[in-house]
Amino acid sequence: MTAVPFMSCHGLAPQEGDQPAGSDTQLTGVNGRLLERVADLEWRGLVHETLGGVAASGTGATGVTEALHRLTGLVVTAEDCFGNLQAWAGPTGSAPPAPLPPRRRAQLLGNARRSPEPVRQGDRVVAVAQRRDEALGVLTLVDPEQRAGEPELFVLEHAATVLAIELGHRRSLVELELRLRRELMDDLLDGTDDESAVSRAQALGHDLRRPHQVLAVRWPGATTEVALTHALETAVSRVVDTKPLLGRRSGGVVAVLPCPDEHTARRHWNELYRAVTERLQPPGGAIGVGGGCSAPSGLPKSYAEARRALRVRVASTSPAGITVDHDLGIYRLLSPGTDDAELRAYVREWLGPLLDYDAASGTDLVMTLLRYLECGGNYDAAAHALVIHRSTLRYRLRRIREINGRDLGTVDTRLNMHVAARAWQMMQGVT
Predict the structure, then answer these.
(1) What is the pLDDT of residue 340?
(2) Known InterPro entries for this protein (predicted)?
(3) Model-level pTM?
């Protein structure tokens, strides 16, 4: 049987007479290529092992850049899809490279997304970490000496794949958590059983076994609901030292958070309002606070109370601020509900002629009456609140007495007309 030719990697020696004369050079070349191939396979195995370890560790962009630097010796950066630096790695004493100008970066990113392989531009070699057609991040080798060759490009390409998987996984987790939080908030505000709510909240890092209450927030000056949500979350985390459950409803934001100690509740809510105001400009938002409840099944009631407190605050002469439902007093009886026929009848009884006159003439006498009564009958304060002259106010009040046929000097009349005007305001949603 003919002997196997010599291959140094297998530790086999050539036998005399097994190869024709002059074959040593050829054999040396074969062995050399084989050694190169073995070395290449070992290198690729090291790359896969290193990057696989990064993927398993969950260290994200930091782990990827550090591994890529170890394998290539070059400075490495990882950016998000907007060009913000997420992580970088390089030799001791080095600094992250300066970002590319926006136009140059956009051009380089466009070229990299169209190429199946890493792309070089000047001293940068770039690979895009993307999921399907969506760019999630960008990996860059900084190579001013132009020494990155096939091995470095191989590592960069595989590192970009690992980064894409990591970023895609994290985005999926974030999207899942947001969806679960949104669904939990909807169920809490609409009504759900206690056991399910507690277990679902616990999975999201919230303890609903403690007494909680609902906040309804409206901030006309906020640029977006996202900005309002972030400001409220930051403020609650600072004041309450906990992360609230947040949702969006009716043009505002709703929060579920633990009840404060009853002895410090007023100071607590004022601090929370100031903390939100510090983060949102211009100021002028309103917050309504519902009552506390010992179980999640009580949160729909707290939510209704928070909305009522918010309506009262928005409809008041000082619409900016925070109102707690517990402090509403008689106004807790005025919020329209599913059966508000009696309340509407009460409003008609005391304000009917004025409401009809305003509707027919396009005037605003009911609001004039309300502002006057809420200013305690002070002419100057009421005129200022209505932005009219004092004599104009006197004329309107005289017309109100003529049309409504009631004497505002009588205590009972004054009280009932004030309550009726407040109830009308709340039902109309007038600010």
Answers:
(1) 65
(2) CdaR-like_regulators (IPR051448), CdaR_GGDEF (IPR041522), PucR_C-HTH_dom (IPR025736), PucR_C-HTH_sf (IPR042070)
(3) 0.60
